[in-house]
Amino acid sequence: xxxxxxxxxxxxxxxxxxxxxxxxxxxxxxxxxxxxxxxxxxxxxxxxxxxxxxxxxxxxxxxxxxxxxxxxxxxxxxxxxxxxxxxxxxxxxxxxxxxxxxxxxxxxxxxxxxxxxxxxxxxxxxxxxxxxxxxxxxxxxxxxxxxxxxxxxxxxxxxxxxxxxxxxxxxxxxxxxxxxxxxxxxxxxxxxxxxxxxxxxxxxxxxxxxxxxxxxxxxxxxxxxxxxxxxxxxxxxxxxxxxxxxxxxxxxxxxxxxxxxxxxxxxxxxxxxxxxxxxxxxxxxxxxxxxxxxxxxxxxxxxxxxxxxxxxxxxxxxxxxxxxxxxxxxxxxxxxxxxxxxxxxxxxxxxxxxxxxxxxxxxxx
Amino acid sequence: xxxxxxxxxxxxxxxxxxxxxxxxxxxxxxxxxxxxxxxxxxxxxxxxxxxxxxxxxxxxxxxxxxxxxxxxxxxxxxxxxxxxxxxxxxxxxxxxxxxxxxxxxxxxxxxxxxxxxxxxxxxxxxxxxxxxxxxxxxxxxxxxxxxxxxxxxxxxxxxxxxxxxxxxxxxxxxxxxxxxxxxxxxxxxxxxxxxxxxxxxxxxxxxxxxxxxxxxxxxxxxxxxxxxxxxxxxxxxxxxxxxxxxxxxxxxxxxxxxxxxxxxxxxxxxxxxxxxxxxxxxxxxxxxxxxxxxxxxxxxxxxxxxxxxxxxxxxxxxxxxxxxxxxxxxxxxxxxxxxxxxxxxxxxxxxxxxxxxxxxxxxxxxxxxxxxxxxxxxxxxxxxxxxxxxxxxxxxxxxxxxxxx
Lengths: 365, 405
Known about the structure:
heterodimer; A: mainly alpha; Amino acid/polyamine transporter I; two-stranded antiparallel ribbon; 13 helices; B: alpha/beta; nine-stranded mixed beta sheet; 12 helices; 13 strands; 29% strand; globular
């Protein structure tokens, strides 16, 4: 078992991991729709946030390229000094931990809301988080290989979800657009962008990439394609559910339930349930790994293999403690967390970029 | 040794986990609901939920005697809410009511006239129920009464009703199918009112035995589709007949296929039957001097399937064109009839003209939103139909009967 900086992942594996990071909030309990006054404007939030995400990913990738073999924590220390680096390392650890906590809770709530209302969500969260911790403990390569294996399978489910409900789409539901102005779409765009900022994990993944010189091209192209896919999915949901979309708790699940082909191919939601478990599992494993990596690099820990299980135990507890119920989780994510995380991640990226310009000069490529 | 112990421990844990969970449901403990009827209780307020529950043991393939058993059990319960009534079904059902296979929600007329929003929460929020159930109203009866009706050719009434609805949608077009999903959207969308199929109980006088091949007992009542039920908001306001329902369907672009009877182009009191193979409509709501005006364009493509008197289109091609004109007139007449019923009788915009106005001219819609029902009553609608007859079946001309003298 290889651990630490020697671990390497391929660009394909990197893309698979990022895919799972973005997929979970789109297909589970997503608070975005609650903030849009008119559902037909919702896809704009997806499209605009994807464009912003391309800019963010580009910046992060270029920063990583300029510090070969160094993670975001390590080059933060290089650029801003050890104390600031440690502070940022701890904040990033907290960030990844919180992302893992709400992802796990999203999955638990989704199962409770969809098919298993009596089973405590702690059961789903506990089982999956422990498995994810086990994968994270085995190292990034194991998580990445799992992602690589699952990526095409989940992609097929997602494509089915995009194609099969097309017959239900009523294109008249897309108008009028921006009836209340662009300003009213900003909250939804911010929430979607907040989910894209989870790509911050790239800052830790780039040093492990086999071909780091290609990282910008891969990640930017992937983010654009992913944004296109998420926007298409949103458009389909608007076309199918119309003005009732904002009332739905599990939109992707209900979209899957709308699928009926030839009076025999239906109940496709079972495939979605399977993809929930698999994709969320990979994401939580990646976030636990990121959390442990942040701590390891911040405090220069030589032995860290006990950390994932401890993190998992803490994560299971916090997924229950942070959110009293599904509504409070959605409210927390939609308002305070969006403001906090967008401010933190964007400020950090901007600070690093400026420091890079000041310390390292212009573009070195 | 250590590894073996670990494997044993994992296997033991797996055994515990695989025995079940909090949400386990054994199939033999479930009562599969296939159709639901909603009414007000005969006394007092609240909701009465009546269900057709499938009896799986009545479908035993080995013993033909099993087929004599009625395949459904009717169970009803009342409560202050649909959820409570659903829970109260347990009072008489030894098995847990299971809603995932429910395919129809039938509303009694009285309940539908009072407003149906009471039950929408239950059927859209509960994860067991599905948004793709068919919504219907039964005319001049309680929904519960319809659950007693059966079909001669289908043992399971829910399946029979589903086939009836699908056939109406695909081959007749004389009603407008509406799933709970569509109903909820129409309710929540500005400028469009829900319209759903209307059913009637076709009484059969219990004279003599009706023994089919299945040796089932007499069927006293069956189900007949009878036009559509027009809503205003969540309340039923009236009915439209088959032709008017098809008029709405032409406008809403919901005709897949149907048969139309037109006058024979050459002889009086004779007819031609056309089968519509393709129909498309477009609704455009414009503003004329600041007031909304609607233009409906319908393209209909049909085949000739029957002529009751001789005609040879090969020799009289202008008669073929005359049939196309007659097709256009027939479709326009149905649309006009539907418009008349919706505008004058019910003031209910089941066509969705207001929705198109809101979509295409949102600023103008703001002025009309509050008074749309009144505006809709006098809304000018221009209907243009383009008809085309493509095929003449296996005959080029109608067979002529030689005079016997």
